[in-house]
Design goal:
- The radius of gyration is 20 Å and the shape is globular.
- The chain has 2 domains: 241 residues, Thiolase/Chalcone synthase (Peroxisomal Thiolase, Chain A, domain 1, 3-Layer(aba) Sandwich); 151 residues, Thiolase/Chalcone synthase (Peroxisomal Thiolase, Chain A, domain 1, 3-Layer(aba) Sandwich), CATH 3.40.47.10.
- Helices cover 33% and strands 21% of the residues.
- The protein contains 14 helices and 15 strands.
- A 10-stranded mixed sheet has the order 5-4-6-8-1-9-15-14-10-11, with helices on both faces. A 3-stranded mixed sheet has the order 2-3-7.
- The protein is an alpha/beta fold.
Length: 421
């Protein structure tokens, strides 16, 4: 592994994905996750939410003690445990000789929607039992609630002394983790990156109450059918936890150690709507997609798979479909479209990273996993190439475009391509 400082080149370094580690509501490895996406297995269940009773949620069932001691789990956060699990799994998957890497040349960049709500809510609830006497407030509260906590806990667990911080980008954060890592590798700030997104959202009642007050919280008698992007009867978001972290490297470093390469980062773009706190802007979304295509040097017809952000809100799904339609139109016969939230709900800061992972195996098996739970397709969401309810075997997948959008109008589009030497 090169350890010299490298700066911007006239031709940017090629950045590749060499490891994937994840915890999803329907799988704790890429192989398990992918199998369930192809066989229609969703990961939504009912949980008890403080003050609100039974609610639908996507819950992860990984073993935090696989990589942490009991005390570390007790002192740390759920987001920290998710991050550590995913980071360790990604490193194992990458087969890198981690112990021999210079730890000051490793960067950890983790996207997160929000952080600290869970711990603060828990502490307020606990001291309410003691007439709000603050002497019962945990002295671990501050390190648990700082925004850099997930990356910080991961750096402590791994012994990484390079830059480790989180990226607050609402529900676009998972994509931003990969974008930022790509930039830092190209700038020569680090030689190896662990990046992606995590979420512990289901452990805060505030997010459930907030979406309910907006009439944006999904309801359904069957949990597995609750997340219904593009369906005429969709009625809101299923809140989920989860995480997905990747190892990213410069191509020459990955090739020098004979690493397996999942994909190459082809292009990306991030912009802002600047128009509303919550409602998305399809014009700005379309601009984001077009800019990512330009950076990748690709035409719309050269994109073979689009993973949509669609969260199953009535208006949000339509507006993203408008953006996609304006870019891709009717003239892209080899472009297929799917949605992963129909299986796992909305994993917030982890969404983009998880959704990309679920589609990466398409490069090898040439199969597009479907959007499930679509019984009555909304005509306003009837995009050409939309894959519904059953997987579709196709002749070619060389490029994947991943959309992730978030509150306060942040938009991100990430494009990866099949690796070709």
């Amino acid at each position: 592994m090169a350890s010299d400082f490298r700066f911007i080149r006239m031709k940017p370094a090629r950045i590749v994905i060499t490891g994937v580690g994840l915890a999803a509501p329907n799988g704790n490895s890429l192989a398990e996750f992918r199998k369930n996406l192809l066989t229609g297995v969703a990961g939504i269940e009912r949980i008890d939410v403080r003050y609100m009773g039974s609610q639908l949620a996507g819950v992860c069932h990984f073993d935090p003690l696989r990589y942490q001691k009991k005390k570390e789990v007790r002192v740390g956060t759920r987001a920290g445990s998710v991050s550590i699990y995913c980071a360790r799994e990604a490193l194992a998957d990458s087969r890198v000789a981690f112990d021999s890497l210079p730890k000051d040349r490793i960067g950890i960049y983790i996207g997160c929607t929000e952080h600290g709500n869970v711990e603060t809510e828990n502490e307020i609830y606990n001291i309410s039992k003691f007439s709000y006497e603050t002497k019962y407030w945990s002295h671990y509260h501050n390190p648990r609630t700082v925004a850099n906590n997930p990356a910080g806990e991961t750096s402590l667990n791994l012994g990484v002394t390079g830059p480790a911080y989180t990226i607050g980008a609402a529900c676009a954060a998972g994509n931003l983790g990969l974008v930022h890592a790509t930039q830092m590798l190209r700038l020569g700030e680090v030689d190896f990156a662990i990046c992606g997104g995590v979420s512990e959202s289901i452990h805060t009642f505030g997010i459930f109450a907030g979406f309910k007050s907006q009439n944006a919280l999904a309801t359904h008698a069957e949990p597995a059918r609750a997340s219904r992007p593009f369906d005429r009867a969709r009625n809101g978001i299923v809140i989920s936890e989860g995480g997905c972290l990747y190892t990213l490297e410069r191509l020459e470093d990955a090739q020098a150690r004979g690493a397996k390469i999942y994909a190459e980062i082809a292009g990306y773009h991030v912009n802002s709507d600047a128009s509303d706190y919550v409602l998305p802007n399809p014009q700005r979304q379309a601009e984001c997609i077009r800019a990512a295509l330009r950076r990748a040097g690709l035409s719309p017809a050269e994109i073979h798979l689009i993973n949509t952000h669609a969260t199953a809100t009535p208006l949000g799904d339509i507006q993203e479909c408008e953006a996609i339609r304006s870019v891709f139109g009717e003239g892209c016969p080899e472009t297929w479209i799917n949605n992963t939230k129909s299986f796992i709900g909305h994993a917030m800061g982890a969404a983009g990273a998880l959704e990309l992972a679920g589609n990466l195996p398409s490069f090898e098996d040439l199969t597009v996993h479907p959007t499930i739970n679509v019984d009555d397709l909304d005509p306003a969401c009837a995009l050409p190439g939309l894959v519904l309810n059953q997987p579709r075997r196709v002749s070619r997948i060389d490029t994947i475009l991943n959309n992730s959008f978030g509150m306060l109008g942040i938009n991100s589009t990430l494009i990866v391509r099949r690796f070709l030497p």
